[in-house]
Amino acid sequence: MSTYTQELQTTATALVAKGKGILAMDESNGTCNKRFEKLGIAPTAENRRAYRELILTTPNLNNFISGAILFDETIKQSSSTGESFVSMMQGLGMIPGIKVDGGTKPFDGHPDELVTEGLDGLADRVSEYYKLGARFAKWRAVITIGADIPSAACIEANADALARYAAICQANGLVPIVEPEVLIDGDHTLDRCQEVTAATLKEVFIQLAIQGVELEQMILKPSMVIAGLSALLPTPVNEVATATINTLMQEVPPTVAGIAFLSGGQTNEQAAAHLNAMNVMFPQAPWAVTFSYARAIQQSALDKWCGDSANVAAAQKILAHRAACNSAASVGTYTVDNDRQLALV
After folding, report:
1. Among 26, 39, 175, 280, which residue's CB has the most CB atoms within a 10 Å radius?
2. Catalytic site residues?
3. Predicted pLDDT at 232
4. Nearest to 182 by CA among 122, 243, 119, 135
């Protein structure tokens, strides 16, 4: 048993508190810079800092967001007033988190498949992040659906890494967010996505058990079961909700502290509508079902800000709106019509 057991349990419960979700603002510098460049924003450390300050100083954000996943650069940055972002978050009652994986790389011997790296030296990094104020972490694995993939080897390798990461985190004071993302890219059907998602989750929980990970002290961040973006027909919202929750009920133990979905390339409205349908249709699910979104909360605000300080307030209004919409979806009270009406206010 970890010496951090009680703290880990308390943190995991707080992260999925009713009506709240987790903001993923852990884009690497490279990813953040690419998004900036598309909008004509200079890809500088100061602009990244200013953008993250815009997010974390958004009025009332803490009403909807329990915690935020930061990047290595961000957890060490401060606001324009000199207060560290970690201190700001703590003062607002938001829990600081940290991305600890080293990104994906080609999986040798398995064309078109990826494996996530970053286990070397992870215990020391986790210990250091704990000292900096982080109380949870994230590791993302990527599973691609294709003609002959994913292979069993790819699923097993990624599940093993996720489990080893989770065990290291719990031993050193951080609640692990376990993120096995089945990519939405491609023309696969809903049924094919459900098949791959089930196989992935089954292997993840086998490996978590092998590593002795305490399920009550972790959050699962899965992708939704949905047809590929290039599929001939879009999947109705209720079918996505049903397929997703049925798959989770089959493969995810009820003792997991909570489910916080990734948005995975869905539109803002899709991500909220799907989450809402799950909470309306399956109110007796054994875990809290909420969100851990990045672009589905941030992108519209980034588009509005565009690097101009004169746009900060307007961008923050958009960000707060998207956070509020997903908060409503996490308790089953979101509607697309209300979303659009409030966006015009």
Report:
1. 175
2. 179, 221
3. 82
4. 243
Contact, 213 vs 175, CB < 8 A? no
Q: Cα(178)–Cα(103) distance, rounded to whole angstroms?
A: 14
Query: DSSP class of residue 142?
Result: E
Q: Kindly report the length of the chain.
A: 345
Q: Provide the pairing of β-strand 65-70 with 21-24.
A: parallel
Q: What is the pTM of this model?
A: 0.96
Number of domains observed in the structure of the chain: 1
Angstrom distances, CA of residue 289 to CA of 6, 154, 218, 281: 22, 27, 14, 12
**What single string gives the DSSP state of each residue in 65-131?**
EEEEEE-HHHHT-B-TTS-BHHHHHHHTTPEEEEE----EEE-TTSTT-EEE---TTHHHHHHHHHH
Given a contact cutoff of 8 angstroms between Cβ atoms, the answer to whether 79 and 88 are in contact is yes
Phi, psi (rounded to 5 degrees) for 137 = -140, 170
- How sure is the predictor about 344, in pLDDT bands with cuts at 50, 70 and 90? low
Question: Under 8 Å CB-to-CB from 186, ≥6 apart: which residues?
Answer: 144, 145, 146, 228, 229, 230, 231
Q: What's the distance, Cα to Cα, between the start and end of the chain in Å? A: 51
Domain range for residue 236? 5-344
CATH number of residue 260's parent domain? 3.20.20.70
* Extended strands (E) in 192-267: 219-220, 258-261
Which pLDDT does position 70 carry in this prediction?
Answer: 98
Two tokens, residue 324: 């509020």
